[in-house]
Design brief:
Shape of chain A: globular
Number of strands of chain B: 19
Bound molecules: cobalamin
CATH architecture of chain A: 3-Layer(aba) Sandwich
Largest sheet of chain A: 5 strands, parallel
Order of helices and strands of chain A: EHEHEHHEHEH
Structural class of chain B: alpha/beta
Oligomer: heterodimer
CATH class of chain A: Alpha Beta
Strand content of chain A: 15-25%
Strand order of the largest sheet of chain A: 2-1-3-4-5
Strand order of the largest sheet of chain B: 14-12-11-17-18-19
CATH superfamily of chain A: Cobalamin-binding domain
Distance between the termini of chain A: 7 Å
Helix content of chain B: 25-40%
CATH topology of chain A: Rossmann fold
Strand content of chain B: 15-25%
Radius of gyration of chain A: 14 Å
Distance between the termini of chain B: 37 Å
Chain lengths: 137, 458
């Protein structure tokens, strides 16, 4: 890869599920991306601060514990406010409670300004493939 | 005999001490008014005369000096995000012994540029963006700083990709620009030593002369160091011997806080947030002091609050504050004045402790309570050392220093739970820092002997 794409990764809200993003970090870094891993219990402000300092190209939000919808709301607006107007937002994990119809869930998150919304159990490879498409690699 | 001289040029007093290196003890201490406005050597000679009067004429083997005269080392730090590079650059400047007048984040505004012009800093530490990260803001800020008609130097410690370009912009405007490593090369990774070194170099090359200390420099056997840096080094060396410690130096213009401790969590289920802080940390509160900064201290502490705590009327408190502002040399005489002075010192310790120490927030999750810690957890720190006129001359210094301890009133602030209290009664902290570079063992021994332990009765 000639241009280095920088991604900010973290588990949003009061969520402590630490395993998934370790695997994501490992796989995405190996694929040649520059990953800033903020770990668990990350607030929207922390995502934005990290993205501003690093001039990140995308924020990857993980949410496992079922409160994803509340935690993720408003992130796009805060990005706009912070001048991160071109940044891509991805979200994945178990972003809502139970087995709701994923098409509906996806629509909700797209309306909230997320560019890519993933169902439970999405493999890192799927995400890497999309990153390459989105950043013309 | 191997007798060494240390001199500290303070804003008000020039303090000298003679140290017997072989016997590891202080032979004598003396002080006189600092005469930086006329010729700083006068005050130094007067202090020396005082010293000779106490212990006879001495031939010194070496002479070392520190200085906080002429406003100290005045710095401004700039970064991008307040909690990230702006904070990192403030930490770098503080650890170099500077008085950090202001810390700015994001793109500088017109108003902030005017402020910089008025504040007349000696050095500006310019950072912003991790390496390979944001570069627009730091470049923009360099252009804006270049436009200020003032002759400060700039240390460039931001995104390395644009460091050269920034130096060029600044140099074109006739400002000295020194490029060094980023204060935050990778996200959340603090790298303050290179900037600290450059600040020290600049202090030696430019600032000493600009502050009118060249003649003193010629008399000394080593470069003059900023006084707070000397105290910092004394704290570092003492910690190695006695264990974790904090020190509070309540001055007329600022309150300086030092912590020598890792600050790792003492509670269970803790997730660490924010910038990792250094083992040896100094913070300086420019708005908290008991003479020059007394108005802002009073504002922060609240006159009503102070009046309630010590049963003195608000009017009497305001009178004292006005007196101190007009004549900063004033010492408290009446019982009431002493009470107010002590209470103000207590408030200075309380406010600066709450700003220096880390804090936690708790979250209730279905698996139980989880904590998020920001900054250093100093709960287990073993010693608290008090310094500065209002503390060491107080009738009850222990009461002042107890404000640095954990309190149920602000239970989320991670202050020491129980610590032994020590007092720098003879005002030798900075001198011991000067000594520590060449005679660490002697410096430690003297501090252990001279620092007064505050027992339960005092
Ligand atoms: C281990 C575990 C825990 C551990 C976590 C330990 C730790 N520190 O990591 C503990 C016991 C603490 C825990 C607590 C809770 N848990 Co739990 N936990 C699990 C469990 C069993 C495994 C999670 C895991 O590590 N999976 C392995 C990793 C590799 O997979 P992953 O996390 O799904 O991540 C992968 C993908 O999803 C994807 N991915 C994830 N994020 C993103 C983001 C993007 C952008 C992309 C592209 C991809 C992606 O990539 C990852 C790598 O392949 C799951 C059930 C399960 N089998 O998944 C429940 C589960 C996640 N927990 C659940 C719940 C409800 C909880 C609790 C709220 C309550 C409870 N019953 O204890 C608490 C919440 C605590 C909190 N504040 O966060 C539910 C969530 C339900 C929902 N969302 O509808 C689950 C699904 C169990 C269930 N079926 O009910 N849990």
């Amino acid at each position: 890869m000639d241009k280095k794409v920088t991604l900010v990764l973290g588990v949003i809200g009061a969520d402590v599920h630490a395993v998934g993003i370790k695997i994501l970090d490992y796989a995405i870094s190996n694929a040649g991306f520059n990953v800033i891993n903020l770990g668990v219990m990350v607030s929207q402000e922390e995502f934005i601060n990290a993205a501003v300092e690093s001039a990140a190209d995308a924020i990857l939000v993980s949410s496992l514990y079922g409160h994803g919808e509340i935690d993720c709301r408003g992130l796009r607006e805060k990005c706009d406010e912070a001048g991160l107007t071109d940044i891509k937002l991805y979200v994945g994990g178990n972003i809502v409670v139970g087995k709701s119809d994923f098409a509906e869930v996806k629509e909700t998150f797209v309306k909230m300004g997320y560019d890519r919304v993933y169902p439970p159990g999405t493999s890192p490879e799927t995400c890497i493939r999309d990153l390459k498409i989105d950043f013309d690699l | 005999m191997n007798i060494l001289l240390t001199a500290d040029f303070g804003s008000t007093f020039t303090k000298v001490s003679a140290v017997d290196i072989d016997n590891k003890k202080i032979v004598g201490v003396a002080k006189s008014f600092t005469t930086i406005e006329t010729n700083v050597c006068e005050g130094f000679d007067n202090a020396l005369k005082e010293l000779y009067a106490i212990c006879g004429k001495i031939k010194f083997s070496k002479k070392f000096a520190s200085s906080s005269a002429a406003g100290g080392l005045k710095m401004i730090s700039c970064g991008l995000v307040p909690d990230l590079t702006a904070k990192a650059s403030k930490m770098a400047a503080s650890s170099a012994g500077a008085k950090v007048l202001k810390t700015y984040s994001y793109e500088l505004s017109e108003h902030e540029l005017e402020e910089i012009f008025v504040l007349k800093p000696d050095i500006i530490l310019l950072s912003g963006g991790i390496d390979g990260g944001n570069k627009d803001v730091i470049v923009e800020n360099a252009k804006k700083l270049a436009s200020i008609d003032s002759n400060f130097s700039v240390i460039v410690a931001g995104n390395k990709t644009v460091s050269g370009k920034i130096a060029e912009i600044l140099e074109k405007s006739g400002k000295k620009a020194i490029v060094t490593e980023n204060v935050m090369p990778e996200f959340n990774k603090l790298n303050i030593l290179p900037a600290k070194e450059k600040i020290r170099d600049l202090f030696i090359e430019n600032i000493i002369e600009a502050k009118g200390l060249s003649d003193i420099q010629k008399l000394m056997d080593r470069e003059i160091v900023p006084t707070p840096l000397s105290v910092y080094e004394a704290c570092e060396i003492l910690e190695k011997e006695i264990g974790t410690l904090m020190a509070y130096d309540v001055g007329g213009a600022t309150t300086d806080v030092y912590s020598m401790a890792a600050g790792t969590p003492t509670m269970l289920n803790v997730v660490i947030k924010g910038l990792p802080e250094p083992f040896a940390k100094r913070s300086v509160e420019g708005d908290i002091g008991v003479r020059y900064s007394i108005s802002s201290l009073l504002e922060e502490a609240g006159a009503d609050n102070i009046s309630r705590n010590i049963s003195v009327s608000v009017k009497e408190i305001i009178n004292w504050v006005e007196t101190c502002k007009k004549t900063p040399e004033t010492l408290p005489k009446t019982e009431t004045e002493k009470k107010i002075d002590e209470e103000l010192a207590s408030q200075a310790v309380l406010i600066s402790a709450n700003r220096h120490c880390g804090f936690f927030e708790s979250y209730y999750t279905p698996v139980g309570e989880t904590f998020m810690q920001t900054g250093k957890d100093l709960s287990d720190v073993k010693y608290i050392i008090g310094a500065g006129g209002s503390v060491i001359n107080a009738e009850n210094p222990k009461k002042i220093l107890e404000k640095a301890l954990f309190s149920p009133l602000d239970f989320s602030i991670l202050k020491p739970k129980s610590a032994k209290m020590l007092l720098d009664k003879k005002n030798i902290f900075a001198a011991m820092g000067l000594l520590s570079r060449e005679h660490p063992k002697t410096a430690v021994k003297i501090m252990q002997d001279e620092f007064l332990e505050l027992g339960n009765d005092s």
